[in-house]
Amino acid sequence: MKKLTATLLAGAAALTFAATAQAEPDGEAIYNQACMACHMTGAAGAPIKGDEAAWAPRLEKGMDTLYAHSIDGFQAMPPKGGHMNLSDEEVKAAVDFMLEPVL
Ligand code: HEC
User: Fold this and answer.
1) Any signal peptide, and if so, which residues (predicted)?
2) 92 in contact with ligand 1, CB cutoff 6 A
3) d(CA 81, ligand 1 centre) in Å
């Protein structure tokens, strides 16, 4: 019985953790998974993370536009980086992580 209780408690802890992760998407993990392939290499003309010159004219459009372009796509940028399973909040967290060094 003790063992069962411990298993149940561990399960509950894992669920709590998952719920927390949902509320606060991990921008770095999402970037690594969904954005890095293009935004680290500059593939297809993607602005590279940390490249101030590449981001300056884009930042002038405002964060709302950059969020919208990340979610809906923009020219060679596929909607959600091609990862349609991501929520809007997860994509925004990845944008925040990507732009953090140039803000
Ligand atoms: C298949 C390659 C590819 C992937 C994957 C990708 N991007 Fe992009 N992204 C691009 C390209 C190319 C551009 C430049 C588009 C242009 O200006 O023509 C771009 C531009 C952007 C911009 C600037 C948009 C603007 O209005 O200037 C943002 C923000 C962005 N991407 C965020 C993301 C995020 C967040 C992810 C991951 C969820 C991601 N991208 C994944 C290729 C990619």
Assistant:
1) 1-23
2) no
3) 7
Q: Does 85 contact ligand 1 (Cβ within 6 A)?
A: no
Supply the residue whose CA is at minimum distance from atom 28 of ligand 1: 70
| Topology annotation, domain 25-102 | Cytochrome Bc1 Complex; Chain D, domain 2 (1.10.760)
Please report, rounded to a whole number, the percentage of residues in the chain having pLDDT higher than 70.
78
Do the Cβ atoms of 45 and 76 come closer than 8 Å? yes
Distance 20 CA to ligand 1 centre (A): 27
Task: Give mean pLDDT, residues 87-103.
Answer: 97
